[in-house]
From TrEMBL:
Stored PANTHER family: ALPHA-AMYLASE FAMILY MEMBER, NEUTRAL AND BASIC AMINO ACID TRANSPORT PROTEIN RBAT
Regions crossing the membrane: 88-110
Assembly and oligomerization: Disulfide-linked heterodimer composed of the catalytic light subunit SLC7A9 and the heavy subunit SLC3A1. The heterodimer is the minimal functional unit. Assembles in non-covalently linked heterotetramers (dimers of heterodimers) and higher order oligomers; the oligomerization is mediated by SLC3A1 likely to prevent degradation in the endoplasmic reticulum and facilitate heteromer trafficking to the plasma membrane. Disulfide-linked heterodimer composed of the catalytic light subunit SLC7A13 and the heavy subunit SLC3A1.
Main location: membrane
Localization of this protein: Apical cell membrane
Organism annotation: Maylandia zebra
Any one of the GO CC terms: apical plasma membrane
The name this protein goes by in its record: Amino acid transporter heavy chain SLC3A1
InterPro entries reported for this sequence: GH (IPR017853), GH13_cat_dom (IPR006047), Glyco_hydro_b (IPR013780), O16G_dom_2 (IPR045857)
Keywords attached to this entry: Amino-acid transport, Cell membrane, Disulfide bond, Glycoprotein, Membrane, Phosphoprotein, Signal-anchor, Transmembrane, Transmembrane helix, Transport
Length: 689
C-alpha cells in the first residue's frame, strides 16, 4: 500500500506488514490484522490519500522490532520521547567536546613554557686533555670521558660542553682546527665520538661541542689552497699586500701579543691572525666561507650533537678598510703597542654584520630543533668587559634569535674585591642589562682563566658554588670546581700553553691540570702509566672526587645538594630573584614564586670579616629563620632571629621559609624574572600570570 502527499510523502511497501503491531490500547498481535488492515483501508477509501501525519500516528503505534524498514524507523525516531533525549545527548556531547577543547587550549595557553634542558641543569665544561686518560698516554680522551659519565649522574648535571677534539696540530690545544669533520687521534676516533654521544644520550646527557668559526689551523686544507691562490679558496682568509721585511700592514695586534699579520712566502702576502700565527683568520666577508661553516654545523647536528659553544665570535669580522686602531695611550710609541690592551679594538672586533652571521648559524640550528625534545643550544664566547651592551647583543633581538645566551664572565672578577657589595655589583651588571625575558647565566672559571679557588682563595669556594647554583639562570661549572680544585704551579720548563710561551704570566696551564678523581697514583686520571701532560696539583690526596663523595660536608657534597635542591624547587629554578641586602661582607637575596608560600633567602659572606646581618626591616621575612644548608655543615638547622643572621667569612646560608607576603610585589625595582609563572597550590600546577 502506499500513501502519497505532494510535499511530504512516504512510500510503504509490503514489508510494512508488521509482526510487532500493537494498537493504542495494546491489544496485541491477536487483533492486529483486522484492525490495521481494515482501518487503514477504510481511511483510504474515504480520503483517497493519507496525510503523512496520519501515517506517522498509525505507524508509531507499532512496537519497534529488529529489521524495521527505514521509513518506519524514521517515523519512530521523530517521536518526542525518542527525539528529545537523543537531541539532549547530542548537544551534551557537543558541549562536552567543546569544553574539553577549550580547557585544553586554556591549559596550553596558561601554562608557562617548560624549562629547556640548557636551562634546567648547569653546563659542565670538560677540557678533554685533562678529564680522564683511558689509554695511558698522559692526555685525556673521549673514551676516558665515557668511562666517567656516572660522575654527572651523581652530580645531577645534564649538559656537558667539551672543549675541542677536532683534528689539530695542537698549537692552541685544539682551538687550531685542521679538519672540522674529524677527531684528533690523541682523543680517539669518530667511532669513539659516536659511542660517547650514544652513551651520553642514553643517560639523558646532552653534548655541547666547541665550534671555532674565527680561524683554522694553518695546516687546514683551505689555507694551503688559499696561499697557493686556488681560485675558489683565494679569499678564504684575510690577505693583504706587505713586504717580507717591511712594515706590517697596520697596527693590529694578536690576542697572544705582537702583530696579527704574518708574511707568507708561498703567496707573497701577509695574512691576518687574531690569535697565533698558526691560526689564520677566516674571511667571513666571503659567502663561501659562511657556507662552509654552515655545512660543518649541519655535519655535527646530523650526528646528533645538542649544541655549540661558539668560540671567540667577536673576532669573526674585521673592517675592510684596515685602518690603524686608535691607541689607548696616544703617546705610547707605536713600536711598544704589542698587546690587545694597547688598542681600542674598533676595527677587529664586533663589526657590523657579525650578528647577521651568528643569527644565520642560529637559524640552521633551529631547523634541527624542530624534532620534539631535540632543542639545539647555542652559547657564544665574547669578552666585552665594561661594554656590557655589546655582550647583550648576542642574545639576539626581539624579532630575531641568536645565542640562547652569551657567556657571562663578570663573576670572574669576584676576587678583585671580595665583598658583598662587589658581588651584588657584578651580578647586577648582568641582571640590570639583560634584555627582558632572557635567561641569565654565570661563569666563574674556564680553561682560559685562573681557577676561582686560586684567585678568590679556597675560603670562598663553597660560597661561590652556592652563589652559582642559587642565582637565577644557568651556571657553568669548569671541571674540578665541584671539588674546589686549585691552579697548579707550572715552571718555565713545564709550560705547554702557547700563550705562556709568549708571556709566562699569561700561561693557561695552571688551570688545566688533570682532574683529581682519587688519591691513587696520578689521582686516578691515568691508571695505566705514570704520565700526565701537566703536573697534578699536589693536594690531590685530600682534594679528590672519591674522598669527597664519602664526606657530607665536602665541597662536592654541597655542590650536589645545591644542584639537586635547585632542580627540585620552583622558586630556585624559575622564580623571582630579589636583592635584599649588600654590605662590605654580605650579599643577600630572595628567591620566590608567586602563589607559593615556600621561599628561599640566601645570605653569603664574601667579605673579610664574620658578620651579623640585620634583616628586621624586611617585613616579608618571618621573625625566625631556619638554615636549610650552610657551607659550614655544623650550622645546618640553626635558627636565627631575622635581626641577627650570623655568617663567617666565606660562609653561605640557604634559608627556607614560609610566607604569606611575597617580596617582589612590594619591591619591583629590586626583582627580576625571566618568565613569570604562578603556582596554584590547590591543584598543584603552574600557570602564566
Ligand atoms: C677562545 C678559547 C681560547 C683560544 C681562543 C682562540 O678564547 O677559549 O682557549 O685560545 O679562543 O681560539
Ligand atoms: Mg676574524
Amino acid at each position: 500500500m502506499s500513501y502519497r502527499n505532494d510535499s511530504d510523502s512516504v512510500e510503504l511497501g509490503e514489508c510494512t506488514r508488521n509482526p510487532g503491531y500493537k494498537d493504542a490500547d495494546g491489544d496485541g498481535p491477536a487483533a492486529r490484522d483486522n484492525i490495521s488492515v481494515s482501518d487503514s483501508e477504510e481511511k483510504r477509501d474515504s480520503i483517497g490519500v493519507k496525510r503523512l501525519s496520519d501515517a506517522r500516528d498509525e505507524y508509531t503505534q507499532i512496537k519497534p522490532y529488529a529489521g524495521m524498514p527505514k521509513e518506519v524507523l524514521v517515523l519512530y525516531s521523530s517521536k518526542a520521547r525518542y527525539r528529545v533525549p537523543r537531541e539532549i545527548l547530542f548537544w551534551l556531547t557537543v558541549c562536552c567536546t567543546l569544553a574539553m577543547v577549550a580547557v585544553t587550549i586554556a591549559v596550553i595557553a596558561l601554562s608557562p613554557k617548560c624549562l629547556s634542558w640548557w636551562q634546567a641543569s648547569p653546563v659542565y665544561q670538560i677540557y678533554p686533555r685533562s678529564f680522564k686518560d683511558s689509554d695511558g698516554d698522559g692526555v685525556g680522551d673521549l673514551k676516558g670521558i665515557r668511562e666517567k659519565l656516572d660522575h654527572f649522574e651523581y652530580l645531577n648535571i645534564k649538559s656537558i660542553w667539551i672543549s675541542p677534539f677536532y683534528r689539530s696540530p695542537m698549537k692552541d690545544f685544539g682551538y687550531d682546527v685542521e679538519d672540522f669533520r674529524d677527531i684528533d687521534p690523541l682523543f680517539g676516533t669518530m667511532k669513539d665520538f659516536e659511542d660517547l654521544l650514544a652513551a651520553m644520550h642514553s643517560k639523558g646527557l646532552k653534548l655541547i661541542m666547541d665550534f671555532i668559526p674565527n680561524h683554522t689551523s694553518d695546516l687546514h686544507r683551505w689555507f694551503n689552497l688559499s696561499r697557493t691562490r686556488d681560485p675558489h679558496y683565494e679569499d678564504y682568509y684575510v690577505w693583504t699586500d706587505c713586504k717580507p721585511d717591511g712594515p706590517k700592514p697596520n697596527n693590529w695586534v694578536s690576542i697572544f701579543g705582537n702583530s696579527s699579520w704574518t708574511y707568507d712566502e708561498v703567496r707573497g702576502q701577509c695574512y691576518l691572525h687574531q690569535f697565533l700565527k698558526e691560526q689564520p683568520d677566516l674571511n667571513f666577508r666571503n659567502p663561501d666561507v659562511i657556507k662552509e661553516m654552515i655545512d660543518i654545523i649541519h655535519f655535527w647536528l646530523e650526528k646528533g650533537v645538542d649544541g655549540f659553544r661558539m668560540d671567540a665570535v667577536k673576532h669573526m669580522l674585521e673592517a675592510p678598510h684596515m685602518r690603524d686602531e686608535p691607541q689607548v695611550d696616544p703617546n705610547k710609541p707605536p713600536e711598544l703597542v704589542t698587546t690587545e690592551w694597547d688598542l681600542h679594538s674598533d676595527y677587529t672586533t664586533s663589526q657590523v654584520g657579525l650578528h647577521d652571521i651568528l643569527r644565520e648559524f642560529r637559524a640552521q640550528m633551529d631547523i634541527y630543533s624542530q624534532e620534539p625534545g631535540r632543542y639545539r643550544f647555542m652559547v657564544t664566547e665574547s669578552y666585552d668587559y665594561e661594554e656590557v651592551y655589546k655582550t647583550m647583543m648576542y642574545y639576539g633581538s626581539r624579532l630575531e634569535k641568536e645565542g640562547d645566551f652569551p657567556f657571562n664572565f663578570y663573576l670572574l672578577d669576584l676576587p678583585h674585591n671580595t665583598s658583598g657589595v662587589w658581588a651584588k655589583h657584578l651580578v647586577h651588571l648582568w641582571m640590570g642589562n639583560m634584555p627582558k625575558g632572557k635567561w641569565p647565566n654565570w661563569v666563574v672559571g674556564n680553561h682560559d682563566r685562573t681557577r676561582i679557588s686560586s684567585s678568590a682563595g679556597r675560603l670562598y669556594v663553597r660560597a661561590i658554588n652556592m652563589l652559582l647554583l642559587t642565582l637565577p639562570g644557568t651556571a657553568t661549572t669548569y671541571y674540578g670546581e665541584e671539588i674546589g680544585m686549585e691552579n697548579i704551579n707550572v715552571t718555565a720548563s713545564q709550560i705547554q700553553d702557547p700563550a705562556g710561551k709568549y708571556n709566562t704570566s699569561a700561561s693557561r696551564d695552571p688551570q688545566r691540570s688533570p682532574l683529581q678523581w682519587n688519591a691513587d697514583t696520578n689521582a686516578g686520571f691515568n691508571e695505566k702509566t705514570n704520565l700526565t701532560w701537566l703536573p697534578l696539583h699536589p693536594d690531590y690526596e685530600t682534594v679528590n672526587v672519591e674522598d669527597q663523595m664519602k664526606d657530607d660536608g665536602s665541597v662536592l657534597a654541597q655542590y650536589r645538594f645545591l644542584n639537586t635542591l635547585r632542580q627540585s624547587e620552583l622558586p630556585l629554578n624559575r622564580g623571582w630573584f630579589c636583592y635584599v641586602h649588600a654590605d662590605a661582607n654580605v650579599f643577600s637575596y630572595i628567591r620566590e614564586l608567586d602563589g607559593l608560600k615556600r621561599a628561599f633567602l640566601i645570605v653569603v659572606n664574601f667579605g673579610k670579616e664574620s658578620a651579623v646581618t640585620d634583616l628586621s626591616s624586611v617585613r616579608e621575612l618571618p621573625d625566625e629563620l631556619k638554615v636549610l644548608m650552610s657551607t659550614t655543615i655544623a650550622n645546618d638547622g640553626k635558627v636565627f632571629p631575622k635581626s641577627r643572621i650570623q655568617t663567617e667569612v666565606g660562609e653561605g646560608l640557604v634559608i627556607q621559609y614560609s610566607t604569606n607576603t611575597l617580596f617582589n610585589p612590594n619591591h619591583p625595582e629590586e626583582c627580576y624574572i625571566s618568565e613569570k609563572a604562578c603556582y596554584l597550590e590547590t591543584i598543584d600546577i603552574l600557570y602564566k600570570c
